[in-house]
Design brief:
It comes from Spizaetus tyrannus (black hawk-eagle). The protein has about 300 residues and is mainly α. The chain has two domains: about 1-65 and about 110-180, Leucine-rich Repeat Variant; about 195-295. Helices cover about 60% and strands about 0% of the residues. It has 17 helices and no strands. The protein has helices at about 10-15, 20-35, 40-50, 55-60, 60-70, 90-95, 115-130, 135-145, 150-165, 170-175, 180-195, 200-215, 225-240, 245-250, 255-265, 270-285, 290-295. Helix 3 (about 40-50) runs parallel beside helix 8 and helix 8 runs parallel beside helix 11. The longest helix has 18 residues, at about 225-240. The radius of gyration is 20 Å and the shape is elongated. It starts with 7 loop residues before the first helix and ends with a helix. Residues about 70-95 have low confidence and may be disordered.
Length: about 300
């Protein structure tokens, strides 16, 4: 577990170690099957997998680029051509959301297991069944890592979490736990998921009222509260930016007074949350059909 947090070279060596990832996954599967999701060894295994999934899209060897990422077709010379690991181009990003991964291997080995739907479902199962905060946080964090990029793999993982594995109810529960880092990681995962436009309706329906409910009435507290608040605002921004229905849902959940209060907090400690709330307010105002409702 300590070695897996030793940096890029350490992660690379461990991913390449024959049988290591397979053994970790095998152990966790056995713990879940035996209804023992709370033992310390399971926590250690999940924390290792969490660390090995960090920056996975960027650090994958080139040999995987050809087999994992489908080649783009009909991309004009004027468009920015996407590399193996995505680009910052908004146009390309939108195209990549519709680019599926090749068919999953039924029996993944080694590093292939890290983004496979089997392990995604294991993480979601641990989130639902484990009561250990570190196990919950590591499972959420691994999913956050896997959905962090802009290439096809993160969007494919996001679709698996939301639509294929029905993971939103388990993630939603984590929004209401008392442990601040578990809550923060759950919000950060939702922020990544909410970037996928094809999933935004599902996410808004399932968790938008919960996100509004955990917004603080005023930004008082620690750095982690500030970071969590900012992440909530950016998630709500993603969900409402192009969707008037979701903006109305935020309004009906009494989110506007909270967001206004947060945006007006000008202390240095909470500038990140204040800025995020201001960006969200500016975006909400773009829905001109809701102006009269906002004023009321």
């Amino acid at each position: 577990r300590n070695m897996s947090s030793a940096g890029p070279e350490g992660r690379k060596k461990m991913r390449e170690c024959n049988g290591l990832i397979d053994s970790l996954v095998y152990y966790i599967q056995g713990a879940i099957a035996d209804h023992e999701p709370n033992d310390k060894a399971t926590e250690n295994c999940v924390c290792i997998l969490h660390n090995l999934s960090y920056q996975l899209e960027i650090e994958l060897p080139e040999s995987y680029a050809q087999s994992i990422y489908m080649q783009r077709r009909n991309v004009s010379d004027n468009d920015k051509t996407p590399g193996c690991f995505g680009t910052r181009s908004r146009k390309v990003k939108e195209k990549q959301q519709d680019t599926p991964l090749p068919e999953e291997k039924s029996n993944p080995r080694g590093v292939e297991s890290l983004w496979h739907s089997t392990l995604i479902r294991i993480y979601l199962s641990l989130i639902a069944k484990s009561t250990r905060n570190y196990t919950q946080e590591a499972s959420l964090g691994a999913l956050q890592n896997l959905t962090a990029g802009t290439g096809p793999m993160p969007f494919a993982v996001a679709r698996t979490v939301v639509q294929k594995a029905n993971g939103l109810p388990s993630i939603r529960t984590m929004l209401h736990v008392s442990h601040p880092t578990v809550k923060k990681t759950a919000v950060s995962l939702l922020r990544n998921l909410s970037r996928n436009t094809s999933l935004q309706s599902d996410i808004a329906r399932e968790v938008l009222p919960d996100l509004v409910s955990i917004l603080p009435e005023s930004v008082l507290g620690s750095d982690i509260v500030c970071e969590t608040t900012a992440a909530i605002c950016y998630t709500l921004y993603n969900l409402t930016q192009s969707n008037s229905h979701n903006a109305r849902l935020l309004l009906s959940a009494d989110g506007l007074p909270k967001i206004i209060t947060i945006s007006m907090n000008d202390s240095n400690m909470f500038s990140k949350a204040s800025r995020a709330a201001s960006v969200l307010l500016y975006s909400l105002w773009s829905h001109t059909d809701l102006h009269s409702a906002y004023k009321k």
